[in-house]
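Project outcomes to date are best conveyed with an example. Our students and postdoctoral researchers have been running inverse folding experiments weekly, and each run begins with a structure described purely in C-alpha cells. The record below, which covers 85 residues, was selected by the lab manager from last quarter's runs and is presented without edits.
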C-alpha cells in the first residue's frame, strides 16, 4: 500500500511558505507520512501557473489548498487518500 504523495510548492522569501511548511509538517508527522517541497524559483512554468497562489499543497498530484494551509482539511484529505490505497 503506497502512501499519499504530498508536495508543498513554495518560493523564496515567502512568509506564508514558512507557516505552510509547519502546517504540512505537523499533519504529516501525526499520520506517519513524508512530504516533499518544490520551489517555483527554478521552474518558470510553475512560477507562472501558481504565481498568485503560493504556497500550494498537492496530494497525489491534485491541488488541495493554497496560501494558508488548513490543517484539519489536509488531515481529512490525507486520511481519505490513505483509506483508498
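After processing, the design step wrote out the following sequence:
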Amino acid at each position: 500500500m503506497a502512501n499519499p504523495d504530498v508536495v508543498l510548492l513554495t518560493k523564496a522569501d515567502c512568509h506564508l511558505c514558512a507557516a505552510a511548511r509547519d502546517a504540512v509538517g505537523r499533519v504529516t508527522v501525526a499520520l506517519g507520512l513524508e512530504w516533499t517541497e518544490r520551489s517555483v524559483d527554478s521552474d518558470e512554468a510553475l512560477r507562472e501557473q501558481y504565481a498568485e497562489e503560493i504556497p500550494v499543497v498537492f496530494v497525489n498530484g491534485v491541488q488541495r489548498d493554497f496560501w494558508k494551509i488548513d490543517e484539519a482539511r489536509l488531515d481529512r484529505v490525507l486520511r481519505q487518500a490513505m483509506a483508498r490505497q
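Helices lie at 15-31, 44-50, 71-84. The mean pLDDT is 95. The training component of this project remains on track.
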